[in-house]
Amino acid sequence: MSAAAGLARSVRRAWATLIALCLLACAAGAYTALHWQRAHAALSGADAQRVALRLRDAQLRQQSSLSESLQRAVDALEAGRFVARHGAPGWREALREAQRMTGIRDIAVYPLGEHPVHASEHVYPDVRIRESIVRLRIGALHEVELLHFLDALRDARAGIMRVRACSLRRGGGTAGPALEAHCEIGWSQALVAEGSSR
Q1: Distance (Å, rounded) from C-alpha 68 to C-alpha 62?
Q2: Of 33, 89, 123, 177, whose Cβ has the fewest other Cβ atoms within 10 Å?
């Protein structure tokens, strides 16, 4: 074998080795890139899951806060006897309680009837909201006594109470209290049908 043939063979081996190393490096690079891409996708997925979990946690906290607020409102309405499961309005009991609390005795009561409120009948057909309206004549009192009496009516909890109108007239006498009040009071209550779960 000549020296030239040996040299050519060595060159071919070197080139083959170099090509193999290049192919190996390309394969390693491709594998590394694929592995990095998968790792990046996994990290991105984990980040997306963390964001989704945070959003879900915030939604649950908001729903819990809203539920607590609604429950407090329902408790307040129930404590104020806004919800009733029988037909008798509670304003007569409220008047008696207010008289007992304030000591005012000169009161004439003129019931003006009950008026249905139809705001919720399509949403809750088993719930009927009514407003009982009563006209009062309260005699022989001072202005402060009238305010105390109205506060006592509100505190008596016979539903949601509102003063629709109120006027004061000064009596003809000069001794003692000389005011006479004419007030129109409304009490709203929600009547729930018997057997309803609301």
Answers
A1: 10
A2: 123
Pairing status of strand 160-170 against strand 179-192? antiparallel
Within 10 angstroms of residue 38's Cβ, the number of other Cβ atoms is 10
**Given 3-state DSSP classes, what are the helix, strand and coil percentages for the chain, each rounded to the nearest 5?**
50, 25, 20
At residue 114, the pLDDT reads 84
3-state secondary structure at position 191: strand
* Rounded Cα distance, 169 and 177, in Å: 11
pTM of the model: 0.54
CB 182 within 8 A of CB 164: no
Give per-residue pLDDT as tens, 11-62.
677 666 767 667 777 777 777 777 777 767 777 777 778 878 888 888 878 7
Task: Rounding to the nearest 10 degrees, give the CA dihedral for residues 180, 186, 98, 77.
Answer: -160
Q: How far is Cα 153 from Cα 81, in angstroms, rounded to an integer?
A: 13
Structure-token pair, residue 181: 């009040």
- Mind giving me the DSSP string for 75-98? HHHHHTT-EESSS--SHHHHHHHH
91 near 82, Cβ under 8 Å? no
